[in-house]
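Standup notes, protein team

Yesterday: finished cleaning the Paenibacillus alba set.
Today: Radical SAM protein structure.
Blockers: none.

Input for Radical SAM protein:
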Amino acid sequence: MNLVYSDSQGNVFDHPDFLALGRNAEMITEILDDELIPLPEGSTLVSLPFTRPVGIDAATGDMKLVEGDYHAVGALLPQGFTRLLLPGYVKSDKTKALPLFGYTAVVWKEDGFYVAARLTDNPYYWNPVHCDPTELEVEVKRLVAKYPENRLYAHLSNCALGYECLTASNTFLQRWEGAVPVSYSCNAGCFGCISEQPDESGFVAPQTRMNFKPKVEEITQIMLEHLRTPESIISFGQGCEGEPSTQAVIIIEAIKQVREQTKMGYININTNAGLTDHIRGIVDAGLDLMRVSTISALDDHYNAYYKPRAYTLKNVEKSLRYATDKGVITSINYLVFPGVTDREEEIEAMIEFVRRTGLKLIQLRNLNIDPESYLGIIPKARGELLGMKQMIEIFQEELPDVILGSYSHTPKFYTSDRTASMVL
């Protein structure tokens, strides 16, 4: 398998004399055949700025940098695929941070590009090729015109057309999981926040956070437009907002008003679940699904990344337990990173966390971050690195009643034949 690299203009090449390498945290490692799958449809190859590609010289067996003004290349995967390794590279300028994306090791084999990844969910619904831009533009214009006073539709139109957010696009296409952002504030200061970064962070947030508090009427209009089929999902908590439960009062009122008018579809919240009292109120109002974002079940790691304000991981656990006990289908949005999530102590802690909270689903999500910056803020490994592939296999063995996936699903998903639909 050949090393893949790019020149300064972004042209991508495979090196005929260098074998590809990957990274597991700081450790540069070989890539095994059973870790590779063909580059999935909807993926993007990107050049990694401020890096040098590193590979194995096939003639000598030595690890070497590619000489010249060249950069490492990574793949950005669509939802439904979990990366197993980072690209093999070294920083050419250690003061520079990579943009906030989830970079995956990519190689060239005899018949095309391959990536170090694993299929973990049906990728169909979150494949960008299934979002027709012409149809989307028509539907954006229609709904914005229908609700000219609704600031949320105006806000989401930029998310859909400008940022190409698929959840926002679904809101206008009125299908699958749609978005209803509500919060401009947050009770956490996530190191890798994609909607708000302090000037001194060195990162550029790829999205702009909403800057207004919506009215209940604006929220219910979007919810009622979207909840038109039995399989529809409308979700609070988007990448363009803070923590939705900080606006629990308006969420609770919106849910109540909507459920007085329709029982169709499912209401979901994507949350850090730190505000347990607020979560209880939202659950009691009629919540169906809850996905909780976490990066670890270890306090020191969790706190280093999320920088929680006036809550702890114990509050998160209480919120999940309460929702589960009330019949809400609960899952975690598990931000995974090769060389960290697959640490022995991380795996053990997460297994116990899942058992205590009664989760139905672990949504594996590739963490969008500059690797060096992330590794610089979290605790060092205390145990063995088992590898992402083995980590997934351990979860499957130790948590047989918990589904490994990549995104939220309706209740039907938990009783259907999922394996049959897991196709490329």
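Follow-up from PR in the comments: The first helix runs from residue 133 to 146.
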